[in-house]
Amino acid sequence: MNLTRALGTVGGLTLVSRVLGLVRDSLFARFVGAGFASDAFLVAFRLPNMFRALFAEGAFSSAFIPMFNQKVGDKDGPGLPAGIAFAEQALAVLLPVLLVMTVLLEIFAWPVTFALSGKFNGVTSSQFAFAVELARFQIPYLLFISLVSLLGGILNSLHKFWVNAAAPILLNLTLIAALLLFHDADPLTTARYQSIAVAIAGLLQFFWLAWAAKRNGVSLKLRRPRLNPEVKRLLKLILPAAAGAGAVQINLVISTALAASMLAHGSVTYIYMADRLNQLPLGLIGIGLGTVLLPMISRQLGNGDAAAAMETQNRGMELALLLSLPATVALVICGEPIAAGLFGYGRFTAEDVHFTAQALAAFSVGLPSYVLIKVLTPGFYARQDTRTPVRFAVISMLVNLALNLALIVPLQHMGPPLATAIASTINVALLYWMLRKRGHFVADARLKRRAWRLALAALAMGGVLWTAQDRLAPYVLGSWYERIGALSLLVTAGCLVYVIATFVLGAFTRDDIKFLRRKRAS
Question: Where are the alpha helices (DSSP H) in 158-266?
C-alpha cells in the first residue's frame, strides 16, 4: 500500500467531510449566531468531539490495530478469522462498559456540563438547565462512535481506509439537514434540534460501518465478556493511549471550560469556529496521515523491517511539513477574509468575524505541531508503547492549563487557543526527542534538506496572500457567488505561488512527480 495513495484516499474523503462541516458551521452561524445558545450547544458538543478524537481517531485504534494486525498477518488469508475472533472478544468487553458509561453520563449530566463549562459566565438556573438538556441529547453519540471505532479499526487494518474516512460525512449531512429543515426564530430551539441530530448521526454512522464490515467479510458476533490475557493487554494499552492521542482534545476541553466560565458569551463560539477552520487542514493532513501510518508501520515492524518503518515515518513527516506549513501561514494571514466569507452573515456579526479571526491566528501557530503529533505517535503505538506518549501528554496538558490561566485575562478569546498551540509544540518536541533517543526515528538527509526550503516557500506564499487579501476584502461579504469566488481565488493564488516556490527552492522536484506517478500506476 503506497503512503501517498492511501493518504490521498483518506485525506480526500476527510476533506469532503471538513468542507461539509464548514457548510454546517456557516448555517449554524446564520441561524444561531454567537451567544448563549451557541455556547451551550458547543460546550455539549465538545464531549462527543473529544470521545471521537480519543476513540475513533486515537486511543482505541492505536491499541487495537497493532494487535489485530498481529492476528491477521500479511494477507487476508488464514489469519483473518483469528483477527475477527479477537475483535469479538474486545467487543464483548467494550459494549457493556460503553452501555454503563452512557447511562452514568446521562444520570450525571449536570456535573459533567458543569465541568465542561464552569457553569458558564453569569447564566440563570434555567439557562444552565437548558445546557444540561443539550448534553443529555448528545451523550448517546459516545456509544455509537466508540463502536464505529472498533469496526473502523478492522477495516483500516484490511486497507479499506475509505469506509471509515467517509463516516464523518454522515454526521455533517445529518446536522445540515436538521439546520435546513428544523431551524427556528428562537436560537435556543435550533440548538435543541441540533443536539438531537447529533445522536441520530451517531446511529447512522454505526449502521454504515456495520454494513461495510459485513460486505468485506467481517461480521462480529456477541460473546460473553471474558477478561482473557489478550483483552487485558488491550485495555492496558487503551488507557494511557487515551491521554496520549487525545492531548489536543483534552487541551481544547480545558480551554473551552475556562472560556465559558471567565469570558463573555460568544467566546466559546469564537474559539469553536476558529478551531473548525484550523481542523480543515488538520483533518486533511494529520488525521489522514495518522490513520494510514499506524497500520503501515505496525505491519513493517511486524515483518521485522525496521528500515522500511523508518523510511515511512520520514516520508510521513515530509508530507506533513509540505502540507501544514502553507496552511499555517495562510490561516494566520487570511483569517479575517476566511471567517467573513464563511460565517459573516445572519446572526454572526462583523465583530464576531473579527474575534473569530483572532482566535484562528492563535490556533494556527500550532498547526504543524498538531499534525506532527499524528505522525510521531504511530512510532510508539506500532511498538505497543502507549505509556511514553501519555507522559508527554500530561506534561503538555499541565503547560496548557498554566498558560490558559496566564493568558486568558490579557488575551481574552485568543488566550486559550495560543496556550493550546504552545502546549502542542512542547508535546511534539518531546515525542521527537524520545524517538530519536531510542533510535526509532532519525531524520534522513532528504527530510533535512527539504524542511527549511518548505518553510521559505510557505513564507513566499504568505507575502502574496498579504497583498491579495485587501483587494478581495469587499467581495467576501457579498453574495454567495462573490464569497465563493473571492475565497477560491485566494486559495488558488496561494497554492500556485507555493507550488512554484517549492520547485524554485528545490523543496519539490520533477523526480518526485515521476516517482508518485510510478507509485500510483503500480
Answer: 161-182, 187-215, 229-245, 247-262
